[in-house]
UniProtKB/TrEMBL annotation:
The keyword Phosphoprotein does not apply. The keyword Cell division applies. Keywords: Cell cycle, Cell division, Mitosis, Ubl conjugation pathway. The lineage of its organism: Eukaryota, Metazoa, Chordata, Craniata, Vertebrata. InterPro entries: APC4, APC4_C. Residues 136-234 form the Anaphase-promoting complex subunit 4 C-terminal half WD40 domain. GO terms for biological process: anaphase-promoting complex-dependent catabolic process; cell division; protein K11-linked ubiquitination. GO terms for cellular component: anaphase-promoting complex; nuclear periphery. This is APC4 protein.
């Protein structure tokens, strides 16, 4: 070590570990701790060396503001406590804020209908992902909920549309249906059914009457076509 290093360590010890007689009655706190580390201790005890807030612009601003001084929107400041204490206090407030909505929403949700989309073998170690692209849409004019999704495996050329009324006591015709794209973009009836088969890459509602889909040519070759198509729900 150089003399400069030794001087640096000595200055640090002198500044931060002076005897503090006023702390003798506190168990294990006979010396001032390093000022950064005290904020990180997971304790509820007061800080040994609390910060000096004199001249702090934010505190002066709050002190001079009649409306903000007692505002419930401002999280209270604890200058004598560590960050762990403040974190626990904030988590408690957030949990309290979220608990009531969670209870109300949870009690209002119930199962309206159950549909079996597919079955898998019980012997499989891992469940394959067969459900893809779920997109939700709410038609406020007709009070209808829509869900767009695709099923992998043998139905990549199909997009499924699930429709439900927002009033769960009412039903709508064709609650679920599938639209198959297949080779509907063939230029002529002479093209083979396998030559230009399309699968769905993505699908979203464009508006209440139109669905936008991105299609991909399914043949295994370079330069696969991508098609952006807009389909009327009707």
């Amino acid at each position: 070590m150089t003399q400069k290093d030794i001087t640096f360590v000595a200055d640090f010890l002198t500044e931060h570990f002076n005897e503090a007689p006023e702390l003798y009655n506190r168990k294990g706190k006979y010396f001032n701790v390093e000022r950064v580390g005290q904020y990180l201790k997971d304790e509820d005890d007061d800080l040994v060396s609390p910060p000096n807030t004199e001249g702090n612009q934010w505190f002066n601003f709050l002190k001079d503001s009649t409306h903000l001084k007692e505002s419930p929107l401002l999280f209270p400041y604890y200058p004598e406590k560590s960050l762990h204490f403040v974190k626990r206090q904030m988590e408690g407030v957030i949990d309290q804020c979220l608990q009531k909505p969670a209870d109300v929403i949870g009690k209002s949700v119930h199962q309206a209908v159950c549909m079996s989309l597919y079955k898998i073998s019980q012997s499989e170690d891992s469940t394959p992902q067969l459900f893809k692209l779920p997109f939700l849409w709410n038609d406020k004019t007709s009070n209808l909920h829509y869900v767009l999704f695709t099923m992998l495996e043998n139905s990549v050329s199909k997009i499924h549309i699930l429709r439900r009324h927002t009033d769960t006591s009412r039903s709508v015709s064709n609650g679920i249906l599938a639209v198959e794209f297949g080779n509907f973009l063939n230029n002529s009836i002479n093209e083979s059914s396998d030559s230009r088969c399309y699968s769905c890459l993505d699908a979203h509602f464009y508006d209440d009457e139109t669905v936008t889909v991105v299609l991909k040519e399914s043949v295994q070759q370079e330069g696969k076509e991508r098609v952006l198509a807009q389909l009327p729900l009707s």
